[in-house]
Amino acid sequence: MKAIQQESRVSSKSKTETTTIESSWHHKHVLDLDDFTSAEIELVFQTTDAMHEILSRSIKKVPTLRGKTLVTLFYEPSTRTRSSFDLAAKNLSADVINLAASTSSVIKGECLIDTLKTLEALGTDIIIMRHPHSGAPYVAARHVKAHIVNAGDGWHAHPTQALLDLYTIRGHKSSFKDLKVTIIGDIKHSRVARSNIWGLTKMGAGVTLCCPFTLLPIGLDKPRGQFPEVEIEPDIDKALSDADVVIALRLQLERQQSGLLPSIREYTNLYQLTEERLAKAKPDAIVLHPGPVNEDIEISSAVAHGPRSLINQQVTNGVAVRMALLYLLAGGSHQ
Length: 335
Prior knowledge:
Strand order of the largest sheet: 7-6-5-8-9
CATH architecture of the largest domain: 3-Layer(aba) Sandwich
Strand content: 5-15%
Low-confidence stretches: 6-21
Number of strands: 9
Largest sheet: 5 strands, parallel
Number of helices: 13
Radius of gyration: 20 Å
CATH superfamily of the largest domain: Aspartate/ornithine carbamoyltransferase
Helix content: 25-40%
Number of domains: 2
CATH class of the largest domain: Alpha Beta
Structural class: alpha/beta
Distance between the termini: 12 Å
Oligomer: single chain
CATH topology of the largest domain: Rossmann fold
């Protein structure tokens, strides 16, 4: 952090304080937020603050990761996450290789481990990985020396999206403690929801999930096991009552082939986030959405583009948050 703070000229901490903060980072990989402490999440936030200062300059580049090679390895389509990581790495002067499975040797039958070993042999330092199968980044982390960052694995996790969501909330709320965060939508298929549940509860917020029971993951109502404790409220009016933050999730149309919903129309009637329903939240409540947005399905156009919406700010924050993570993984004093 010290080097970045010197570069950004916004340091307000002493050398001793900075060393103490950095000592709380112990991650070789970023796979999910279940193994993050609140101190580590706060360290990401503080580093992101410095990265925002860099992004405010006319020349948005520092030499922090010069000589490092980063590969984005995506087995699924992506616009926001992939371009965000690409910009983040280039802003830190890393060499970036974008690799899509559809244009690689994967279509010739190359397995994941062979692809990773090839990238490692090429001298890759960081691999940003999106994969349709839950757990794939964990397999990768066991087989290569490079840092692995999970950019979304199946229905399991999307830690960098959750961190940018938390950072966006932090910019508008004085504290996470006792915040009521309501997450509405397709929880079952949402890797974003799972990572947000871990991150928000670690920071002291209360989480309320709202959706049809058919769109809840198995075991979510048993918090002593694989999930933190959350409140489940299928009635959207009750779920939104006195909410400080509302996160609307994309209704994943491609996942709805198994009869989990009677129809999109019925879902929209019961669970779309509208201005009328948002009025039940607190007057200063903010609205987030991980994107891409199905306007007038899970969220009305009026809300998506309204004064409480921070959707575009989330995208902007995503670059700074990912710059912070890349710095902490490959450029921090723990190396």
